[in-house]
């Protein structure tokens, strides 16, 4: 059905200001539609560098960009700071915490959230790495552990304070393990001369038989070697059974005494579709048609991490390029629908994958070609810097990277108080003993 003959412009609502949502809105710029972008935050987060915030390499502000600034010069796009709670499909209405929005076409790109797999203690005692608030909280906690260890006289307690467990051998777990190792072996050694750094232990646990499974075998092997050379204990085929405030218990019965469990073991789709009666899979991602429309509703598109997009007998991964390309295609399909044309199927153009392991160490896979070491690291730096939104952000990130590279210095090793709207715990060194939990 076409709306092109009506005087009133069709209303397009985009839920989520991630990569998919922003690129969808940009694609609809100056089209005959009125666009409203809805997000619970008024900033876009460059999630690929979130782990560097948690490792005191970048400020939170360096990887965030105001959403309204993105649309300054796009008159038909507006932004609403609100939390979308439910989609009323029958009445084409979105219920938020501050207003109700009507829509003619809807693009849902709310992304993914951490999955705890219902493992006891993870939600209450582990640290997550999916939001800026969580990254800042984790950075605070790491520094607080060293502060507490510097004055702890009991050897066992000090050892547990200096034991850091990262669960999940995907890209986030690997990149954070390397960044944490470099933070500890560089700036923190100078900050805490009273600590015996031979007591520091970083453990990376992976339930599968290899790290970064989607990468080629030579990069997987290279990743393990590099992390081991950096002092990270890589333990494969190790699954977590329970997390408590002072230990991680593995399924094989092993217990690791630690105050720090960083959970990067998995993600699932955000709750909005499920709460709205939209069918979802086991991982709460929404199965979509080839056109990115949901089943039985031609007016709703789902994109990015939230969409279970099948292509070539596989479900596309939760990466930025899938979000960007699916956001563009969904927007173009809406324009086609308005013009009375049929939506076209989405085809993903795989531009390769990459992972940063540490200083001058990275792996890049483009088609059948792979790159490792310094060349791959430079490719990683350039591509991530290019994809950052905002000139200021690029300058600040480049400055911090240069400072770290030339002087082995992390400029943001301070503890800021923070309040968390998530299930991750937050603590200030002055407020609580390390190992407790705020209520």
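-> sequence recovered:
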């Amino acid at each position: 059905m076409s709306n092109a003959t009506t005087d009133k412009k069709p209303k397009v609502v985009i839920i989520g200001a991630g990569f998919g949502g922003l690129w969808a809105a940009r694609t609809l710029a100056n089209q005959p539609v009125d666009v409203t972008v809805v997000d619970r935050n008024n900033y876009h987060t460059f999630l690929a560098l979130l782990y560097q915030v948690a490792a005191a390499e970048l400020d939170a502000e360096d990887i965030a960009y105001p959403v309204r600034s993105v649309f300054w010069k796009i008159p038909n796009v507006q932004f609403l700071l609100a939390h979308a709670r439910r989609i009323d499909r029958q009445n084409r209405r979105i219920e938020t915490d501050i207003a109700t929005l009507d829509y003619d076409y809807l693009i849902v790109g709310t992304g993914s959230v951490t999955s705890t797999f219902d493992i006891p203690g993870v939600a209450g005692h582990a640290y997550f790495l999916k939001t800026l608030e969580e990254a800042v909280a984790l950075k605070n906690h790491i520094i607080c552990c060293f502060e507490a260890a510097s004055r702890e006289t009991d050897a066992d307690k000090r050892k547990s304070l200096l034991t850091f467990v990262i669960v999940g051998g995907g890209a986030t777990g690997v990149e954070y393990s390397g960044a944490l190792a470099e933070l500890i072996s560089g700036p923190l050694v100078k900050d805490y001369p009273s600590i015996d750094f031979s007591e520091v232990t970083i453990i990376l646990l992976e339930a599968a038989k290899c790290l970064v499974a989607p990468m080629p075998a030579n990069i997987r092997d290279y990743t393990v070697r590099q992390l081991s050379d950096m002092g990270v204990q890589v333990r494969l085929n190790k699954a977590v059974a329970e997390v408590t405030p002072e230990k991680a218990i593995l399924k094989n019965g092993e217990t690791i005494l630690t105050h720090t469990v960083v959970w990067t073991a998995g993600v699932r789709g955000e709750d909005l579709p499920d709460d709205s009666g939209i069918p979802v899979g086991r991982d709460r991602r929404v199965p979509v048609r080839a056109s990115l429309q949901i089943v039985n509703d031609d007016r709703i598109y789902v994109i990015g991490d939230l969409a279970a997009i099948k292509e070539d007998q596989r479900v596309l991964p939760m990466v930025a390029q899938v979000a960007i390309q699916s956001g563009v295609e969904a927007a173009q399909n809406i324009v086609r629908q308005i013009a009375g044309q049929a939506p076209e199927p989405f085809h993903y153009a795989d531009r390769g994958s990459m992972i940063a392991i540490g200083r001058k160490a990275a792996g890049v896979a483009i088609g059948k070609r792979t790159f490792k070491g310094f060349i791959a690291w430079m490719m990683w730096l350039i591509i991530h810097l290019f994809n950052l939104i905002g000139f200021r952000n690029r300058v600040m990130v480049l400055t911090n990277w240069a400072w770290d590279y030339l002087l082995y210095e992390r400029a943001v090793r301070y503890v800021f108080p923070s309040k968390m709207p998530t299930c991750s715990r937050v603590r200030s060194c002055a407020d609580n003993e390390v190992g407790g939990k705020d209520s």
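Residues 1-6, 420-428 have pLDDT under 50 and may be disordered.
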